[in-house]
Automatic annotation (TrEMBL):
InterPro entries: Glyco_trans_2-like, Nucleotide-diphossugar_trans
Signal peptide boundaries: none
Protein known as: Glycosyltransferase
Organism taxonomic ancestry: Bacteria, Bacillati, Cyanobacteriota, Adonisia, Adonisia turfae
GO molecular function, one term: hexosyltransferase activity
Keywords of the record: Transferase
Organism: Adonisia turfae CCMR0081
Gene3D superfamilies associated with the record: Spore Coat Polysaccharide Biosynthesis Protein SpsA, Chain A
Glycosyltransferase 2-like domain location: 7-114
Length: 309
């Protein structure tokens, strides 16, 4: 039986000290019908020297810095695989990951995506056991097929997701689904996976795998993952506003869900203070698309979240 080609897209920016580990983790996969595409997003360290060492094994795309969404877009446009896997360049796939993912897609023909759990480690790959890391993982739920389309349509999805915090390196897709999602708005420069995940949820059923088959490093340059300071809150708030705007614009069935995100986010935006004038236009554009009932609902939500503070 001919098994599908898998494209593994590695996005990199100044992670030369981790990049070789990421590449080797893909080359060490038990599943061999793969292509490796590395998008270097304008690195100024030794990343491109590392990439050059693997010229015979990878397809390299060297570009100016434009953010994660840009890297996703160009990497996907150059790929050929039926199945697409993302990998951040500071993370690592465990050897049997691709084999496991392919088996899930082969056993569940109706799914378009598979998202799996990640094992958090420090920069030296020592597993982190503190409670904060496990807060992203609901162990009371089960691996299996989930259809979230109706929940997204009703604007209610959070409690239905067994895997709250899976990041880029835990995302796997059929090409047929990603073709309808990418290219994505490049204005969403970081944590672009939030947009992709929600677009996937509203498009097809998928599979949540609670087995941790990749390692996510937590280190000095990506502490955003676990940080709780005010700067992270502002950045997160900005991303949520932009994500809500583009989801509503590009995927109308997410309208109620996007409105919910937007309602919470603009209240946080007021609380955190104006730091980015470019958001004013997006907030105004979003409000202009709302009908009377949606505007009323937005006011109620904003007042409710204001009272909760």
């Amino acid at each position: 039986m001919n098994r599908p080609l898998v494209s593994i897209l590695i996005n990199n920016y100044n992670y030369g000290h981790f990049l070789q580990d990421a590449i080797q983790s893909v080359l060490n996969q038990t599943y061999k019908n793969i292509e490796i595409i590395i998008v270097d997003d304008g690195s100024t360290d030794n990343s491109r020297d590392i990439i050059k060492k693997y010229d015979e094994n990878v397809i390299s795309i060297l570009k100016d810095n434009a953010g994660q969404a840009s890297a996703f877009n160009i990497g996907f446009s150059k790929s050929k695989g039926e199945i697409i896997l993302f990998l951040d360049s500071d993370d690592i796939f465990l050897p049997g990951k691709v084999e496991k993912i392919i088996q899930i897609f082969e056993d569940n023909h109706n799914i378009g995506w598979c998202f799996h759990a990640l094992e958090f480690t420090d920069k030296d790959l020592v597993v982190l056991k503190d409670k904060k890391t496990y807060a992203l993982f609901n162990e009371n739920n089960k691996s299996g097929v989930y259809d979230l389309r109706n929940h997204i349509n009703r604007g209610k999805v959070g409690c239905k997701i067994p895997l709250n915090g899976t990041a880029t390196s835990g995302l796997c897709f059929k090409r047929s689904l990603l073709t309808n999602i990418l290219p994505m708005p490049e204005e969403i420069r970081i944590t672009s996976d939030d947009y992709i995940k929600c677009a996937a949820f509203v498009s097809t059923p998928g599979y949540f795998l609670l087995e941790k088959i990749a390692l996510q490093r937590i280190h000095g340059n990506n502490l955003y993952t676990l940080r709780e300071d005010e700067q992270k809150q502002f950045t997160k708030n900005k991303i949520e506003i932009l994500t809500a705007y583009w989801l509503r614009k590009n995927f109308p069935l997410t309208r109620k869900y996007a409105n919910k995100i937007f309602g919470i986010s603009i209240n946080k935006h007021k609380y955190l203070g104006e730091r980015d004038s470019s958001l004013r236009e997006r907030i105004g554009d979003y409000r202009s698309t709302l009908n009377i009932l949606e505007n009323l609902d937005l006011c109620v939500r904003s007042f409710y979240y204001h009272l909760k503070r």
